[in-house]
């Protein structure tokens, strides 16, 4: 029987029960307490009843009534942060890289980062057997990150079902080994970057280079070869971001070397090298490690897709950020690279819900493969959870699902609750059978030259996500924060 995936339905995790989030419970509880207080304070009976009912209705409306896809309580924090950044001018960014200069050692000086990106990041180099790799220390997140480019050892789509399931099991084995081995790697981020290219570029280049003096049979032979060779219309790249948590033992081990950052480079380099060596377990092939220039080029390419990803000329920790960025618009973020004066427009969506019905191994294929002429980035960030802790969380979730089920006599049980109970129970069984425990989230960014093209690309991604049974939510008023979650910074998840 082919293997199927079933993701749990997002459920609130409040202080009491799982019907509401913690802040929603506080608003409802505060509204109830305030309404009771008015009964004791207000002297007039009519005013008592009016105030009592009004406070209850307002608190309930703030939590329960949808407003533009979210509730008022959900919009409050977003609007508050957006207006604060709008007032202090942080949403309008202009890079100071041309004025930053370099140190006496020839190293570029870091500049301020755009809104949404963690501030105060430190760049340093780690040496591995696979070459130098750039490591970013994000103090606000307490996280070190490094990026490698990978590819599958086999063509996943061309394999039969049994071989595909074997590859998935191999990836699960790698996740479980990484989380249970006692190492420092605690977070991984997959980034799939898709950029359309000209499918006729090779044919035009061959036509331009054609030598009229060559024999005709050679021309005919090459024309037949061109017709037989399939030219991909998209450039697809796959990156894996490795996240290591900042810890006291890591600092203590790094202090054994001449300097703290030298120690970081040695210790983290060993961790990254060990992980790269284990990629073969998951049938993955290491392509390259991204040093400072390559990582800077990748980051700049995300802001300005006309900057070619492999063009590392002049790329460093200062020039990686866009020349200009404007996130003042509520539904779109605008940025411009160094090579041109034409801006790019970006829109990012959060994968609000993964499939809650059984899906096959290729359920993401519509989003990753069948989006023609769309510049997009799909990022999935996952925290690795040790098996013992994952089992405890699964038992707790199953207990909550079974305990909150409505089993009153004479009442038919909601079939959706029965499905959630089966899903919670199956999660325990899968972890007991050796499945890896992860906590994950996903983000999708689309880019275009103008608003019309952006709306068209958003529609294409929306249709593809529907085929993949994904529920997207466009991050209006916080596009700058959402866009940063598709950068190679392993963001998008709260620190565990």
Polypeptide structure, described:
With 496 residues, the chain is an alpha+beta fold. Helix content is 41%, strand content 21%. It has 15 helices and 15 strands. It has helices at 22-41, 45-64, 72-88, 97-100, 161-180, 201-208, 216-228, 248-254, 260-277, 292-303, 365-368, 387-403, 415-432, 451-467, 479-484; strands at residues 66-67, 70-71, 92-94, 122-128, 131-138, 143-152, 185-196, 234-245, 284-289, 324-326, 333-336, 344-353, 375-385, 437-448, 471-474. Strands 3, 4, 5, 6, 7, 8, 9, 10, 11, 12, 13, 14 and 15 form a 13-stranded antiparallel sheet that branches. A two-stranded antiparallel ribbon has the order 1-2. Helix 1 (22-41) packs antiparallel against helix 2, helix 8 packs across helix 9 and helix 12 (387-403) packs antiparallel against helix 13 (415-432). The protein is globular, with a radius of gyration of 26 Å. The model has no long low-confidence stretch (mean pLDDT 85).
């Amino acid at each position: 029987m082919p293997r199927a995936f079933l993701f749990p339905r997002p459920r609130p995790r409040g202080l009491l029960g799982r019907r509401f989030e913690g802040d929603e419970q506080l608003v409802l509880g505060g509204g109830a307490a305030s309404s009771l207080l008015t009964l004791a304070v207000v002297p007039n009976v009519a005013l008592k009843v009016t105030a009592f009912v009004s406070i209850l209705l307002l608190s309930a409306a703030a939590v329960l009534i949808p407003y533009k896809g979210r509730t008022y309580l959900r919009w409050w924090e977003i609007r508050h942060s957006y207006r604060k950044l709008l007032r202090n001018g942080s949403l309008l960014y202009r890079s100071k890289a041309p004025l930053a200069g370099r140190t006496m050692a020839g190293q570029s000086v870091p500049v301020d980062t755009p809104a949404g990106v963690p501030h105060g990041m430190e760049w340093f180099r780690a040496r591995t057997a696979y070459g130098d790799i750039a490591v970013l220390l994000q103090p606000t997140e307490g996280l070190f990150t490094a990026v490698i480019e990978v590819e599958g050892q086999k063509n996943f789509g061309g394999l039969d079902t049994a071989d595909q399931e074997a590859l998935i099991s191999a990836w699960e084995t790698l996740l479980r080994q990484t989380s249970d081995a006692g190492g420092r790697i605690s977070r991984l981020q997959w980034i799939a970057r898709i950029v359309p290219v000209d499918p006729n570029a090779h044919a035009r280049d061959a036509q331009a280079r054609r030598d009229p003096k060559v024999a005709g049979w050679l021309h005919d032979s090459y024309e037949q070869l061109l017709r037989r060779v399939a030219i991909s219309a998209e450039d697809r790249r796959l990156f894996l971001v490795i996240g290591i948590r900042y810890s006291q033992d890591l600092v203590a081990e790094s202090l054994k070397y001449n300097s703290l950052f030298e120690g970081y480079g040695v210790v983290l380099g060993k961790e990254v090298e060990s992980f790269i060596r284990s990629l073969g377990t998951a049938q993955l092939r290491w392509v390259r490690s991204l040093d400072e220039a390559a990582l800077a080029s990748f980051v700049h390419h995300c802001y300005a897709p006309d900057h070619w990803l492999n063009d590392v000329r002049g790329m460093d920790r200062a020039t990686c950020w866009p020349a200009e960025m404007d996130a003042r618009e509520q539904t779109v973020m605008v940025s411009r690279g160094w090579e041109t004066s034409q801006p790019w427009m970006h829109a990012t969506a959060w994968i609000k819900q993964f499939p809650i019905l059984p899906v096959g191994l290729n359920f993401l294929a519509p989003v990753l493969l069948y989006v023609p002429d769309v510049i997009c980035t799909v990022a999935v960030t996952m925290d690795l959870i040790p098996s013992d802790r994952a089992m405890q969380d699964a038992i707790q979730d199953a207990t909550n699902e079974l305990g909150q089920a409505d089993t009153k006599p004479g009442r038919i049980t909601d079939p959706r609750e029965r499905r959630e109970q089966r899903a919670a129970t199956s999660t325990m069984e899968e972890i007991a059978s050796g499945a890896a425990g992860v906590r994950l989230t996903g983000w999708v960014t689309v880019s275009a030259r103008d608003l019309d093209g952006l709306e068209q690309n958003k529609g294409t991604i929306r249709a593809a996500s529907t085929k993949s049974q994904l529920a997207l939510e466009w991050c209006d008023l916080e596009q700058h924060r959402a866009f940063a979650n598709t950068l190679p910074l392993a963001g998008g998840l709260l620190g565990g």
